[in-house]
Structure formats: C-alpha cells, structure tokens
Amino acid sequence: MWFFLVKAIAGAIIGSATESWFRDTKLGVWFYAKMDSLYTWAAKRYGIKIATDEQKQMAKFPQLAKRLDSIETRLRLLERDDSVKRAESNYQDSF
To answer: Which of 9, 28, 47, 71 has its CA 20 to 30 A from that of 87?
Structure first.
C-alpha cells in the first residue's frame, strides 16, 4: 500500500520537474504552441467557450470585477482625452 503512495508522489514530482524543464526547450516551445493552436482550432470549430482564469476569478469576486471595470472605463476616457489634446496641439503646430 505504501509503495503505491510513494510511487505516485515521486512520479508527480519527477513529472512536474520534467515538464517545467521541457517547456523551456525549443521542442517544448514548439509543442506547446501546436497544442495551443489545436485547442484554439477545436474551440472555434465546435463552438466551445473556454473560460479563462481571469473570467473565473471575476465570477468569484463580483465586487472586484465592478471595480476593475470602472477603472478600465476611466482609463479609456483619460487616454481618449489625452489623444484629443495631442491632436489639437499637433493641429496648431502645423501652421
């Protein structure tokens, strides 16, 4: 009984170490890119909606989601106002 428990723990540790090393190799980068493209293709082909980690966190914390949405809205307004001011200053510089 103990043998199987120790074997499972050791296998998990070795597997995790191998995966983290493999991810940084050229073959690992290629493999993970191919797997990502396969997942994307399958999601588009079969209409699968895959929730991202961010969406899952926002579902757990609705107050945080509201606050981040308001901050993003204010940031967009500020960026738009800044671009309008730059466009106006460029207009006067052209004469």
So the answer is: 71
**If we measure between CA atoms, which residue out of 65, 63, 85 comes closest to residue 73?**
65
CA pair distance 62, 12, nearest whole angstrom: 35
Span 63-84, mean pLDDT?
A: 87
Structure tokens at 53: 């980690």
Q: What count of Cα atoms within 13 Å lies in the side-chain half-sphere of residue 90?
A: 6
Q: Distance (Å, rounded) from C-alpha 95 to C-alpha 70?
A: 39
* CA distance linking residue 34 with residue 39, whole number of Å: 9
Give the mean pLDDT of 11-26: 88
pLDDT confidence of 93, banded at 50, 70, 90? low
